[in-house]
Amino acid sequence: MKHERNEERVKYVREAILCVSIGTVVGLVVYQIFLYFNIAIVGWNLGLIFAPLAAGYVETILANRILGENIGAISAFILFIYTTFYSFILKNPTLGFNIITIASIFVILQAAFPTLINYIIFTLGLGTLLYIIGMFRKVTGFIYHKIKGFIYKHILKKPIVDNTRIEEKHEFDEAKSNKILNNMDFYFITSTDIPNYVAINIGQFHSTVIVEKAEVPKPPNPQKYEKDTLYNLKTGKDKCLIKLVQNIKSAGGNGVVDLDIQYSLIGLGGDHYQVTAFGMGILIEE
Predict the structure, then answer these.
(1) In this predicted model, what pLDDT tens digit does every residue of 166-189 receive, in sequence order?
(2) pTM beyond 0.85, yes or no
(3) Which of 4, 40, 79, 266 fits as disulfide partner to 127, beta carbons 3.0 to 4.6 Å?
(4) Interior/surface letters 118-127, b for 16+ CB within 10 angstroms, e for the rest
């Protein structure tokens, strides 16, 4: 038994090295093509972007087909090191630190470390931006109400009549939600052990949706706030599932197993929710 496990481990490593090697070779070929034809912007060769992307893409496709899983786009990291050394140190050490080089480094890092960079963009960057926008809206709203109150009190000499009405959100339609998801020609299952069918693993998938946090009613109304929050989260959940289904379908799958949905607050002030769906995409065949 131990000998069989060692053989399986050696086979896995050998196949993983093969995937990384082919991805690296493809990335090097792409980079040389961009260098040969001098495809560049302001002295910055676009192969810095497309070579790691090509390497990681080819490796991921091969790894999903041969190993049944993603091994982390190692070839993209190798191309990142090689292209950075070749272009910024060996061939053009005086390129300079400008907006083009900043953008190139960022895009290369995105290709080499997609999970980390996506976390920085969506969780920290987008969250910070949404927080700033929310604070700006609160400040401008506060100034507006103060000016309006001063005008009514000292100039018009009459009380403020608020004719605006907060529109009530409709109740979340569970039946409609289920109908939409059930009519997508897609399988949501909990096990790949399906009688008379074969489930082929096509890899791990995820989708993310940013949901605006419900506004606190004025005067405070806890029941309405809770109702609006649930409505926003359920709506975001459906959008997230639809995106996940579309991602899996575009990869040739027609089902998902081990589905996991996570909710988290993002932004410095927690002004928005992030809904993320994870699952193993599968192709179900008779």
Answers:
(1) 444 557 788 888 888 888 889 888
(2) no
(3) 266
(4) eeeeebeebb
